[in-house]
Design brief:
alpha+beta, globular, 26% strand, single chain
């Protein structure tokens, strides 16, 4: 099982619109532009986290917004990722994990190339990412947002 980070830009799709459109239990297919992963592609059952960059928008809108299960990769549709958001996505989109630790993990995942759409998350970072999201949702860290 792998973990993947899908990066969204507030200039393309606003966090407010994301909150309106994306709900747990719905199936989605999103296009994937540039991606990391040493030639590997997401597989059914992999984990997907959605992340809004700071962009030119409000700094408080950046952070991790969702957690999903990857359903499949659609080559015939021009490289699209089909997934379904799961718990705690609805909570995360209302109160994104965007404190200093979240930003640090996102930066480590993205490395020097911050303009991709999709990154494969190394196992050690995936563990920290899952722990961070679960800690945030459990309310043990109020962060900066």
């Amino acid at each position: 099982m792998s973990t993947w980070l899908y990066q969204m830009s507030p200039e393309v799709w606003s966090p407010s619109q994301y909150r309106l459109d994306v709900w747990e239990g719905q199936r989605w297919a999103w296009p994937v532009g540039a991606m990391s992963g040493q030639g590997t592609k997401p597989q059914p059952g992999d984990i997907l986290v959605t992340f809004f960059t700071k962009g030119k928008g409000n700094v408080t809108d950046s952070g991790f917004y969702g957690w999903a299960i990857i359903l499949d990769w659609l080559d015939a549709a021009g490289d699209q990722l089909r997934f379904m958001p799961v718990t705690p996505s609805d909570l995360l989109k209302m109160c994104p994990w965007g404190n200093d630790e979240a930003a640090k993990i996102a930066d480590e995942i993205r490395g020097n190339m911050k303009q991709r759409t999709l990154w494969r998350v190394e196992d050690d970072l995936a563990t920290r990412l899952r722990r961070g999201i679960l800690t945030w949702v459990a309310g043990r860290d109020t962060g900066q947002n």
